[in-house]
Automatic annotation (TrEMBL):
<dbReference type="GO" id="GO:0050660">
    <property type="term" value="F:flavin adenine dinucleotide binding"/>
</dbReference>
<dbReference type="InterPro" id="IPR037069">
    <property type="entry name" value="AcylCoA_DH/ox_N_sf"/>
</dbReference>
<feature type="domain" description="Acyl-CoA oxidase/dehydrogenase middle">
    <location>
        <begin position="145"/>
        <end position="238"/>
    </location>
</feature>
<dbReference type="Pfam" id="PF00441">
    <property type="entry name" value="Acyl-CoA_dh_1"/>
</dbReference>
<dbReference type="Pfam" id="PF02771">
    <property type="entry name" value="Acyl-CoA_dh_N"/>
</dbReference>
<dbReference type="InterPro" id="IPR009075">
    <property type="entry name" value="AcylCo_DH/oxidase_C"/>
</dbReference>
<feature type="domain" description="Acyl-CoA dehydrogenase/oxidase N-terminal">
    <location>
        <begin position="30"/>
        <end position="141"/>
    </location>
</feature>
<keyword id="KW-0274">FAD</keyword>
<dbReference type="Pfam" id="PF02770">
    <property type="entry name" value="Acyl-CoA_dh_M"/>
</dbReference>
<dbReference type="InterPro" id="IPR009100">
    <property type="entry name" value="AcylCoA_DH/oxidase_NM_dom_sf"/>
</dbReference>
<dbReference type="InterPro" id="IPR045008">
    <property type="entry name" value="ACX4-like"/>
</dbReference>
<dbReference type="GO" id="GO:0006635">
    <property type="term" value="P:fatty acid beta-oxidation"/>
</dbReference>
<dbReference type="InterPro" id="IPR046373">
    <property type="entry name" value="Acyl-CoA_Oxase/DH_mid-dom_sf"/>
</dbReference>
<dbReference type="InterPro" id="IPR006091">
    <property type="entry name" value="Acyl-CoA_Oxase/DH_mid-dom"/>
</dbReference>
<feature type="domain" description="Acyl-CoA dehydrogenase/oxidase C-terminal">
    <location>
        <begin position="256"/>
        <end position="397"/>
    </location>
</feature>
<dbReference type="InterPro" id="IPR013786">
    <property type="entry name" value="AcylCoA_DH/ox_N"/>
</dbReference>
<dbReference type="InterPro" id="IPR036250">
    <property type="entry name" value="AcylCo_DH-like_C"/>
</dbReference>
Length: 404
């Protein structure tokens, strides 16, 4: 018997962990949505997971994965029309979780391309702008990014300094952006800036890498999501046609409409990381023999596994209700904030427990848990840190803002 299989109980089925659907929430999806979800899962299992270790360790952007990603139809999945799948917000979220279960870098690419860039165009663009840009983005022929965060404005991005001034039939952009996912490889970047009237707008920059005044440098030295590239971007007189300003992007409240949607996707991502870590820990506990018996036979290990799957189930329940509210047009930025606050915090406990359960093997990429342990740190912070989400919820329950 191979060493890796020693201690496996007779008849044990590792597939029981897959999906971690303890309360049968899968039944809420339509047959078509389950088919799409299963397609994402299959692609991740067959193409992403076997290769993720290599690009994570090398900090390499896996451009060769784009055709497979496009084929899953997860890009813009909940958008109706424009070549998108048009599924429910719940199905979209479950698909995002499956991507994260496969690899955090792929999930983050999707969060940027679909959750931020496509959502910006869909929510805030005119019908002509949607028709112009969304179909190519749905086919992933056009890779999208959103440039919002600045070097000195992260959580207080409302204080953004990037400026857009009108010059004839163009807007001219000046400033700097940081931590811009896909920023060095994108074909289309929505740059957020203040105009001369102080209004905040989203300006679509096409083929940015070819433009004068655009400089995007990849940020290296990361310990999370090493297979997706974030960029530090400098804009020095970048010229954008006047009709590239998103028609409905006029205030920071419009920006928040995008963030409310993208934070929902990030909340689901945390579930995917937690499920992957739980699956890895359960598999290891069933196979790993210590003191003459599998780890899974020990009470303390079963207590940890029970705690992990309970946390995952609570995360799924919260995100499911959040997505139902989204489909009803009732999900607010505070709902999304609470979901991200809970899922990223709970997932942090799950992946830490899984890493500990694997002992010394828990720090090796070979077992995948270490990768999710590291990648979740980015999920925990981006799209608003835990404390920012907490203050959004606090504002909702007290009626008083603690931001200023």
């Amino acid at each position: 018997m191979p060493e890796s299989d020693r201690g496996m109980p007779e008849g044990a089925d590792l597939g029981l962990a897959r999906g971690t659907d303890f309360l049968h929430l899968d039944e809420l999806l339509t047959p078509q949505e389950r088919e799409l979800r299963d397609g994402v899962r299959r692609w991740c299992d067959e193409a992403v997971v076997p290769a993720a270790q290599e690009w994570w360790e090398a900090a390499r952007y896996p451009a060769e994965m784009l055709p497979g990603y496009a084929a899953t139809r997860v890009a813009g999945a909940s958008i109706e029309g424009y070549g998108c799948a048009g599924v429910s917000a719940l199905a979209d979220g479950v698909m995002c979780a499956e991507l994260a279960r496969g690899d955090g870098s792929i999930a983050t690419f999707n969060a940027v391309h679909s959750g931020l860039a496509m959502t910006s165009v869909h929510l805030l663009g005119s019908e002509e702008q949607r028709q112009r840009w969304l179909p190519g983005m749905a086919r992933v022929e056009t890779v999208g990014a959103v440039a919002l965060t600045e070097p000195t404005h992260g959580s207080d991005v409302v204080s953004m300094e990037t400026r857009a001034r009108r010059d004839g039939d163009h807007w001219v952009l000046d400033g700097a952006k940081r931590w811009i996912g896909n920023g060095s490889v994108a074909d289309l970047v929505v740059v957020w800036a203040r105009d001369d009237d102080g209004d905040v707008g989203g300006f679509v920059v096409e083929a940015p890498q070819e433009l004068d005044g655009w400089d995007a440098q990849v940020i290296d030295g990361k310990i999370s999501n090493r297979g997706v590239w974030q960029a530090h971007i400098r804009l020095d007189g970048v010229r954008v046609p006047a009709d590239h300003r998103l028609a409905e992007a006029r205030t920071f409240a419009d920006t928040n409409r995008v963030l409310a949607r993208s934070r929902q996707a990030v909340a689901w991502e945390a579930i995917g990381h937690a499920i992957a870590a739980y699956e890895g820990a359960l598999t290891y506990a069933l196979r790993r023999e210590q003191f003459g018996r599998p780890l899974a036979k020990n009470q303390l290990v079963q207590d940890d596994l029970a705690r992990m799957v309970t946390l995952i189930t609570s995360m799924q329940l919260m995100c499911t209700r959040m997505s139902q509210l989204q489909d009803q047009g009732r999900c607010t930025i505070e709902h999304a904030a609470m979901a991200k606050l809970h899922t990223t915090t709970a997932a942090r406990e799950v992946v830490a427990t899984a890493r500990d359960m694997l002992g010394g093997n828990g720090i090796l990429l070979d077992h995948h848990v270490a990768r999710h342990f590291a990648d979740l740190e980015a999920t925990y912070t981006y799209e608003g840190s835990r404390t920012v989400q907490s203050l959004l919820v606090g504002r909702a329950v007290t009626g008083t803002s603690a931001f200023r």
